[in-house]
Amino acid sequence: MNYTNFILNYLKQTHKFVNMFLVPGFEPVIREENGEIKKILEIKLTEKDTKEILLTLRNTASIPKTPTIKEIFSFGLSEVGRIRVSYFLQRGSYVINIVKTPFIIPEPADIFTDIGEFLDFYEKFSQQKLGIFLILGNRWLSNSTFVYSLLKLINKKHKKIICTLENPISYLLRHGNSIIIQRDINVDVGSPEEAIKEIYLLDPDIIYYSSSMQTENISELEYIDLHKVNIISYPFNSYSIFKEKLENSTSSYFRKIFQKNLKEVVIIKPEQIDGKEKISFEKVESS
Description:
Layout: H1 4-12, E1 18-22, E2 29-31, E3 37-39, H2 47-60, E4 70-77, E5 81-90, E6 93-102, H3 108-111, H4 115-126, E7 131-136, H5 140-157, E8 161-166, E9 179-184, H6 192-199, E10 206-210, E11 229-234, H7 239-249, H8 252-261, E12 262-273, E13 276-284
């Protein structure tokens, strides 16, 4: 049985970001925002099932070629969002990861525990012509929700060129008063270093670079133009962890300039309030 329609209908039922895994011998699952795995169908997939799903998704994306050993492709679904599919062969069977990037960015009033604190941060940010705003917190999607709430207001009230570099893209931000350019690392461009170097050809006003991985090496930051407004986000839960990785990955000259241009360090703290996830944040000293 081809379960693709079930998969696509599931993606259509929520406006949220979705990270789904299809593995032979296991039920289809999603990784929730708190990192837990949740089954969405009580049927274990077979090797034939995942292959049929993959072929149907590739056909939806108008990719006629035979599947390779591994690949990443994407396509859009009207009123749903952008669907990114990555897969690889594991002992002759296909393992599939599906990421849905939604169109709808939550309203700040719906997600922040203290909307006044967030608006104060926005006012300070919107007045900057250059500098680094470092967004940390061990939940990558919560970090990204904070940033996109910020960019959504900038897009509504200011005329800027805003570029985002992510893996994967967490929200789709449409043009408003600002021009929006979003690049999905590993889909639109091959590597973080390449993405950062290329984006400056456009001379953007604001650059948002986000890593969803708790990686040891963050040397790609050496390519960032520190004379722009840069929002940099990593899923590290403290500034001390970030500083240690920066120390091990970049030159002393870069670190000196980075520290000089660092305007704000924010730690994102998701909370559960009345069954809904809310975001609070803490500004910490960067010295």
